[in-house]
Amino acid sequence: MQTNLASWASGTDLGNEADAILRRCVHCGFCTATCPTYQVLGDELDSPRGRIYLIKQVLEGKEPTQSTQQHLDRCLTCRNCETTCPSGVEYGHLVDIGRKIVDERVERSWGDRTRRTLLRKAMLSPMFAPAMRLGQSLRGLLPQALRRKVPERRDAGPLPQVGHHARQVLMLAGCVQPAMMPTIDAATIRVLDAAGIGARIAPGAGCCGAVSFHLDAQDEAVAQMRANVDAWWPLVQDGKIEAIVMNASGCGAMVKEYAHHLRHDAAYAQKAADIVALVKDVAEIVAPHAELLRARLPAGMRAAFHPPCTLQHWQGLRPLSEQLLADLGFELQPFADKHLCCGSAGAYSVLNPDIALELRDRKLGAIAAASPDVILSANIGCIGHLQSGTDTPVRHWVEVVDEQLRRAAQA
Description:
The chain has 24 helices and eight strands. The strands form two sheets. A four-stranded parallel sheet has the order 2-1-3-4. It has helices spanning about 15-20, 35-40, 50-60, 65-75, 80-85, 90-105, 110-125, 130-135, 145, 175-180, 180-195, 210-215, 220-235, 250-255, 260, 270-280, 280-285, 290-295, 310, 320-325, 350, 355-370, 380-385, 395-410; strands spanning about 165-170, 195-200, 245, 280, 300-305, 330, 375, 395. About 50% of the residues lie in helices and about 5% in strands. Helix 23 (about 380-385) links the parallel strand 7 (about 375) and strand 8 (about 395). By secondary structure, it is an alpha/beta fold.
C-alpha cells in the first residue's frame, strides 16, 4: 500500500513504524473473513482492512472524527487478522498507533471519558479486592448485568513451601485476577510444585499494563511496564530465576511485547528484551512434565478448550496448549470457529456489551454442540465472560489439573 504521510507524521518514530506496516498491506481482504466485528456488524470500516484505510487517511493528513474513533474502538485487538494475513501485516501495532493518534485529536464525550477513567482506576485500585469480595457476598442480589462481572468465590486452598526447589520461577501479581479468581494463582503454584518447580511473586510487580494501554492511557501503561521490569530485574540478574510464568494469556501477551514498547527507552530497552526472553506461559513450563503429572491424574475428562486470542493469535501457543491438555488425559472435543474471539477482550465487554455478548453466545453455541463436561481456557477475562452465559463450568485448565492432583493425593 502506497503512503504519503503528513509532515507531522513523517520522520517520527510512530510515523515510520506505521508507514512500514501500511506498505505491507496488499488489500487482499483475507482479514475480513476472520474478523469478529466484521462478522457481527457487516461494515467494512469495522474490519481490519477498513480500519487500516482509516488510519492511513489520518496519517496522511485527514482529520479524524468521532466515527473514526468509534470504528477503532470496536476492534477487539484479537489479532486473528494477523494469523490470516499472507503479507505479515502487524495490524495490532498499527491499531495501537491509530488509536493513540486519534485519541489525541478527537475529544471523547464526557460520559465516555468518565466511564473509561473510572473503569481503569477501579481495576487498578487497592480497593478493587475488598469491593470484589463484597460483590461476591451479595452476588445473588446484583442486577444481571453486574452479576455477569462478579464470579462466584472459591477457596484458594493451602500453598506449599517451594523455596527448596532447585528450579525457581517468578509469577506476575497482576491486578484483578488475585481478587476475582485467586484459585488460578494458587493452582499454578501447586501444579508447578508437583513438577518440582518453585514459583513466587516478586515484590513491587503489579499490573502488566494492558488495562491502561487499552483504555486511553498508553503513557501510564508504559510506566507500569517499567515498574515491573524494575521489580523483576534484580531477581533475574542473580541468575536463580529460569522463567517469568504467566497464567493469564492476556498478561503474557502484553509482557512479551515489553521489548517493543520500550525499544526507544535507552534505560530499559535491553532490560525489557532480556525480560521478554524469560517470559513463558504456564503451559510452556508444564508441557515437559506432562508424562510425570499424567501418572498421578485420574481418567480423562470430556472437555472443550477455548484458546484465548492472546494465546493463539498473539503468542501462537494454541497447538502446544492443546497437546498438553491431551497429554494430561483430557478428552478434547472439537467445535466450530475455535479461532474466533469470545468477545471478552479485557474491558471490551464492558464498553461494547452488545457485540461482546453476541460473540459470547456464538462461541457458547458452538461449544454446546460438543457437549463437554467442562470448558477450559487460559485467561481470566475469557473464563469470566464465558461463564456468564452458561451453566457448564468454565475453568482455567491449571485449576482442573490442580484439583485432580489434590484428589489423587487424598485418595
